[in-house]
Amino acid sequence: MGEDSLPQSNNKRIAKNTLMLYIRQLLTLVVSLYTVRVILNVLGVEDYGIYNVIGGIVSFFAFLSSTMASATQRFFSFAIGQKDFDKLKRIFSVNWIIYGLIAAISLILLETAGLWFVNERLEVPLERFESARQIFHYSVLTFISTILTTPFMAIIVAHEDMHIYAYVSIVETILKLTVVFLLDFLPGDKLELYGILVFAVSALNAGMYILICTRKYNECQFRQFYWDNNLFKEIIGFTGWTLFGQLTTVGRNQAVTILLNQLFNPVVVAARAIAINITSQINLFSNNFNMGLYPPIIKSYAADDKGEMFSLISRGSKITFSLMWIFALPLFIEMNAILNLWLKNPPLEAALFTRLALVDVLISSISLPLATAARAPGKMKNYELILGSIQIGIFVASWLVLKAGATAYSVFLVAIIANLVMFVVRLFIVKSLLGFPLRPFYHKVVIPVSLVILSSGVPSFIISFALPKHIIYSFLSMLLSVLFSIVSMYYIGLEKDERERIKSLIISRTQKYLNIGI
User: Fold this and answer.
1) How far is CA 428 from CA 74, 249, 301, in A?
2) For position 100, what pLDDT does the model report?
3) What is the predicted pLDDT for the residue at 184?
4) How many angstroms from the chain centroid is the CA of residue 342?
5) Quick one: residue 217, left, alpha or beta (phi over 0 = left, psi -120 to 50 = alpha)?
6) CA 187 from centroid of its chain's CA atoms
């Protein structure tokens, strides 16, 4: 096996986990896109924009949960990598207490500062103001239930039991689809009703995770609590800087939505919400693969196996981008046709916003394994301070360009430029923290990815431009772009040994299924 090859066990486990998460995500994607269409029709563009602004305010506080999720995941995986299961019990117990405190703090902040913002600053039509207040309260309850679910999701991922995560997510998706159908039949204000039903789904989801984890994992028991001051300080120290990073990330995403609400009409906010919804669903394909990579990267660092860790980072960066590109390219070239078919009458700016958002998340996707690796040593100060400052700069720059009279889409251009800068910065930070070699990464990731973009993107755009404007030709164009992407990734993106492993895997699987059939 070559120096850069992944151990066979890791290959199989990551591939299996990725497959489970892919099946889950495909179903989630279809249901989510259909849900947006129905919700947009039932609520109307204005109420849909209101719901997303309210959700943005609550999500502004979501960094509390996201920060702890990142810390929890890192500490769980590290303890498992060291095979220290007594420590794992202490980590879970300390984290559960911290999550309880976070839930209480979140509730207080949201129902005071958050409610003040809704009452005094939010731009909502007068006749929808009371509904906006109610939807805010339901969104807060949904967020609190999400906080209490997070440590249980983290322990499942740390154990690499992705099939459990996938199954529960599928049930959650089916419940959300049920909510959509119920809206047409239940009486009352549709906006308020939607908020109540979304909270009910979130509470059921939390119950499923808690029940499964308490039955399956010894560390997730409530019969006895452990407390460890040193561990608490270590987690809080790690979390403190991660908190800053998550806060600035939320500022980049949700605060910009609120900024657009202050300067433009709700239709523009709805267009941005549609763009973010599409890209977030597509982005989950690469995030799911990175979720499968997270435990092996942390565990290989804990076991002091840097060779495997560096291989995971490089291959992971290339694959996460590829998983995004295969969906992003057809969407990018046929966005107008897709939106018209999907939403019938989409907001005017939705196509442009979504194309720019796709570019933004494509750049981010290649950085996901780098961000995971940066968390492995637990030294977050420089990483979060530098990256967080750039994130703050995105919001400030967006505010300045909009105040100067720029159009709404300029906020996406600002984010794209900043994301390119952050990608380079992450590379140098990981090099400093781990001794990560940059030249091999450039040759094995950056160059192949660039060639894949050119070799698949150029012919896809030429064909799309040349074909007549009809839905049938749009589907043909999308299929050809997917084909170009797959061929380019296989022959240009992958190295020879990677292609050989894929061929061997396909042949062995085919023979297995043929033997079963016989």
Assistant:
1) 21, 20, 18
2) 84
3) 76
4) 22
5) beta
6) 34
Q: Lowest-pLDDT range, 28-37, 106-115, 224-233, 470-479?
A: 28-37
Closest CA to 485 of 284, 338, 325, 321: 325
429: Cβ contacts below 8 Å, ≥ 6 apart: 374, 382, 383, 386, 387
From residue 356, how far is each of 193, 230, 390, 409, 511 by CA, in Å? 33, 45, 19, 8, 44
* Average pLDDT, integer, range 148-174: 83
Q: Name residue 10's amino acid.
A: N
Distance CA(88)–CA(242), nearest Å, equals 21
- The residue with tokens 């984290």 is 95
**Mean pLDDT score, 398-425:** 90
> Quick one: 185 exposed, middle or buried, by C-beta within 10 A (0-12, 13-18, 19+)?
exposed
pLDDT in tens, 20-48: 666 776 777 677 667 777 777 777 777 77
Q: Per the structure block, which two tokens stand in for 314?
A: 């490089």
* Residue among 48, 240, 65 at smallest CA distance from 148: 65
What is the gyration radius of the CA atoms in the chain, in angstroms?
Answer: 23
- Determine the Cα–Cα distance for residues 206 and 99; give it in Å rounded to an integer: 14
Which amino acid, residue 163? H
Asked if the model's pLDDT at residue 5 lies above 60, the reply is: no
Domain ranges of the chain: 8-517
Distance set, CA 460 to CA 212, 285, 392, 464 (Å) = 46, 22, 36, 6
Could you give the CA distance from residue 406 to residue 399 in angstroms, rounded to a whole number?
10
CA angle 325, 326, 327 (to 5 degrees): 90
> Rounded to 5 degrees, what are φ and ψ at 367?
-95, -10
CA 164/CA 155 separation, integer angstroms:
11
Residues 191-223 have pLDDT tens digits of 788 888 888 988 998 899 999 988 888 888 766
Distance (Å, rounded) from C-alpha 295 to C-alpha 298?
Answer: 5
- Mean per-residue pLDDT for 277-294? 74
Residue range 353-374, pLDDT digits in tens: 999 999 998 998 888 889 888 8
Cβ within 8 Å of residue 319, ≥6 positions away? 289
pLDDT of residue 3: 39
**Residue 367 contacts residue 426 (beta carbons within 8 Å):** yes
Q: How far is CA 191 from CA 48, 188, 478, in A?
A: 8, 9, 35
Q: How many residues does the chain have?
A: 518
**Which stretch of DSSP H or E encloses residue 240?**
helix 229-263
How distant, in Å, are the alpha carbons of 28, 119, 149, 266, 413 from that of 168? 12, 36, 12, 34, 37
Task: Find tokens 């409530």 and name the residue.
Answer: 222
User: Cα 235 to chain center, whole Å?
Assistant: 23
Cβ contact 371:287 at 8 Å: no
